[in-house]
Amino acid sequence: MMKYAEDGIGQQYENTRDPIQTCKTLQEIVQRLQSEQSSLVERYEWLEAMINHVPDFIYAKDREGRFLFANRAIVSNNGFRTVDDLIGLTDFDIHPSEAARDIAEVERRVMEEGRPDLGIEEERLTGEGWLMMSRVPLRDRSGKVIGIVGASRDISARKRDERLMKAQATLLQSVARGVELPDLLAQLKSLLQALLPTRRANVWLDTGLSTIARESEHEFAIPARDGTLHGLLVVGADATDDPALLEFLAGVAQTVGIAIDRHRDAERIAFLAEHDALTGLPNRASLDRRLQALLAATSHLPRGVAVAFVDLDHFKLVNDSLGHAAGDELGPAGLVSRVGGDEFIVVLTPTPIEFDQRLNDIREAIAMPLHLCGMELRVTSSIGFACSIEHGLTAAELFANADMALYRVKANGRNGVHLFSPALAEEGPQACAHRRASSRNRTG
């Protein structure tokens, strides 16, 4: 009788000498082995299916860098049809030599040191985008390193989102710092070119374009604070555009709208610092500076400049009859600077026409009939003026003397033009007192 080994199968053989029984036992053993093999195959197929359905790149290599296994993502990404086409190849067979050397160096270090290399971000070798790479030693049952296992995840979307957030933060910082609008728009164009290098991107301001996007482009309204539109941000469209990109572009358009509002606010503030808010004419501070410059520039001329105070006669009646809107409408007609409700200052530089004639022309122009709110109005004016060569070398002197000349026009019945003379200076204190009282009574 044959002596069998002391294992499960041998024990079953020793338990019977009956050939028929022995045959049955062998059949059971074969069936059990087949069942176990089928289970192993099924588990392997399940494992392979799961790994192949994972979008990450997973592979194993031996110590020489030859592929032992790769999932479907790696196979298709490298242009192969099946995993068998890849088995046995190295990165030098697939990638440019420089890139292959970099990969081999990292994997060699992992295998020699026996330590993982985790979470390294690298640009993809095929196509555009970024991968997060992790590599760990592959060990046998005894713990000996026999190769390497690698996995990488496509983080292109995350990196793209980081770039979008960084670009938006850069733009917002520029707005917060008060960067000039032209510089901000140039910066925006550079940012969009870097983010979307294959597309056209433009900012159209103050356009009548519709906000309905054409098929080949996205249009984002650039809103103004008052609910109107400053314009449009127009960016070429692509089939791969996702909600995150569209949300970013809409946010950029909002940021540009805020920047334009702030820019125009700053322009308005700067304008109002130098101009009258109602008429848009230079204010007294601006006029003082300009007049001082004119006096210096014309000091060598025989006639210098003329400074005239113009007062609209009975302007209060216009306001009382038609309201301030109608009265204000009369203000800007041909005047240089508004210094009060009904007072204006005109500064004239020398021309062949005499100063008094030019001021009479202004007075007649003011007296032309106006039709406001269905009524015809005629407004007269009183004008007093002084000349720099004869009546003063400073703005303060000319203003004071022109003011006294204006008082004389009013004392004579208004609606006229009068040149300052030294004789008026003797009446100065009385005239100024009357002017102050008159000013307190005016409401226009």
Q: How would you sum up this structure, described in words?
A:
With 444 residues, this protein is of the alpha+beta class. Helix content is 48%, strand content 20%. The strands form 4 sheets. It has a 5-stranded antiparallel β-sheet, sandwiched between helices. Strands 10-11-9-14-15 form a 5-stranded mixed β-sheet, sandwiched between helices. Strand 7 and strand 8 form a beta hairpin. The longest helix has 35 residues. The protein is rod-shaped, with a radius of gyration of 46 Å.
Task: Determine the number of helices (DSSP H or I, runs of at least 4 residues).
Answer: 15
Distance between the termini: 136 Å
In helices, the fraction of residues equals 40-55%
Strand proportion, as a percent range, falls in 15-25%
- Strand order in space, largest sheet: 2-1-5-4-3
> How many DSSP-defined strands?
15
> Average pLDDT value?
81
* Topology order in helix (H) and strand (E) letters: HHEEHHEEEHHEEEHHEHHEEHEEEHHEHH
Taken from the alpha-carbon principal axes, the silhouette is rod-shaped
Low-confidence stretches: 1-9, 436-444
Largest beta-sheet characterization: 5 strands, antiparallel
> How much is the radius of gyration in Å?
46 Å
Helix-and-strand structural type: alpha+beta
